[in-house]
Write a structure and sequence with these properties.
Blueprint (H helix, E strand, L loop, with lengths): L1 H32 L15 H11 L5 H13 L13 H36 L4 H14 L3 H15 L23 H7 L3 H37 L3 H8 L4 H12 L1 H25 L5 H10 L3 H29 L1 H4 L2
Helix pairs in contact: 1-13, 4-5, 4-8, 4-11, 4-13, 5-8, 6-8, 6-11, 7-8, 8-11, 9-10, 11-12, 11-13, 12-13
Membrane topology: Multi-pass membrane protein
Subcellular location: Cell membrane
Pfam family, one: BPD_transp_1_N
């Protein structure tokens, strides 16, 4: 099985190279085609045309777009994604500071979505043919029609502003110092440094934005899991299991759930990119200092190097998640190990 996993990972990484390259070309050329001048953020209002020409030359913006892209690609291959125009810092440093917060939020949202959706899918399947199924189905459709950013507003107003149960701004309270030199994942760093009070504070700040992502993501998983279970219920192995006298609960948990997991994992892999992208608005609403919030500031300031860097990170993360999903296929489906 290990050899099959290596083959899947190698194929995926080989296919990812042209994908990342193509995306970088598209993003680079589209951004240059926009009617926005990044120099507007750099120059003072009284700058002369000579000043503008000098800065443009220093940034290489006076060269052709193709030459600019070749230079950017050469530097990117050496780990240099340029310097942010608005923050005046290397893009890689800004990404390294912001990415752990977004990954922590995304994985918390995904974990919460699975906690909601797996029991939800089982409950929807278990109540099939009853009035309860119709009620739950309407509830799931209602959840499905509400996007993550709207859930974020509802949760912030309900549990943050009106009830005051949970914090709704930032990663920690303003008086708490974030650990320096750690992984950037606060839930890990505070445990490593034995600051359990700060860990609890960071955890509370994570609940509302993660819940907003989870509530926008889980209805899809619920519906796909229910459909997969319904399809699996007519399979031969389920009939045999019933004839052997196994209870319905044993059949579902020991046999059907495992076989229904593949389409559900497919959906999670395909939709995780949307969940990761959904952090952009959720982070903005909760003033969460992640990569999505950074993207909003970059777009607002016409910060082309930073936008390119963030787009590249989104692409790479999505490809990595799809690679993990393909590896899970091989682990869960023995037929693929022989392919």
């Amino acid at each position: 099985m290990f050899k099959a996993l290596i083959n899947v990972a190698a194929r995926r990484f080989a296919g990812a190279i042209p994908t990342v390259l193509l995306l970088s070309i598209v993003v680079f050329f589209v951004l240059r085609a926009l009617p926005a001048d990044p120099l507007a953020m750099l120059l003072p209002p009284n700058a002369t045309q000579a000043d503008a020409d000098a800065v443009r030359h220093a940034l290489g913006l006076d060269r052709s777009i193709v030459v600019q892209y070749v230079i950017w690609l050469r530097d990117a291959l050496h780990g240099n994604l340029g310097t942010s125009i608005s923050f005046r810092e290397p893009v890689t440093r800004l990404l390294a500071n912001s990415l752990p917060a977004t990954l922590e939020l995304s994985f918390a949202g995904l974990a919460l979505a699975l906690i909601i959706s797996i029991p939800g899918g089982l409950l929807l399947y278990g109540t099939r043919g009853t009035v309860i199924e119709n009620i739950l189905d309407v509830l799931v459709v209602c959840m499905l029609s509400i996007p993550a950013f709207l859930w974020a507003i509802f949760l912030m107003l309900g549990f943050g502003v009106m009830l005051g149960w949970l914090p709704f701004s930032g990663r920690v309270d303003s008086g708490i110092v974030m650990p320096a030199g750690g992984t950037g994942f606060l839930l890990i760093d505070y445990i490593i440094t034995f600051q359990f009070g700060h860990w609890h504070n960071a955890f509370l700040h994570l609940i509302l934005p993660a819940s907003a992502l989870a509530l926008g993501f889980s209805p899809l998983v619920i519906r796909v899991l229910r459909s997969s279970l319904l399809e699996a219920s007519d399979d031969h192995y389920v009939t045999v299991a019933r004839q052997r006298g196994l209870t319905e609960q044993q059949i579902i948990l020991k046999h059907m759930l495992r076989n229904s997991a593949l389409p559900t994992i497919t959906l999670i892999g395909a939709q995780f990119g949307f969940l990761f992208g959904g952090t952009l608005l959720v982070e903005t609403i909760f003033s969460y200092p992640g990569i999505g919030n950074l993207m909003v500031q970059a777009v607002r300031n016409h910060d082309l190097p930073l936008i390119q860097g963030i787009a590249l990170v989104f692409c790479v993360i999505t490809l990595l998640i799809n690679t993990v999903v393909d590896i899970l296929y091989v682990v869960l489906n023995p037929k693929l190990r022989r392919a």
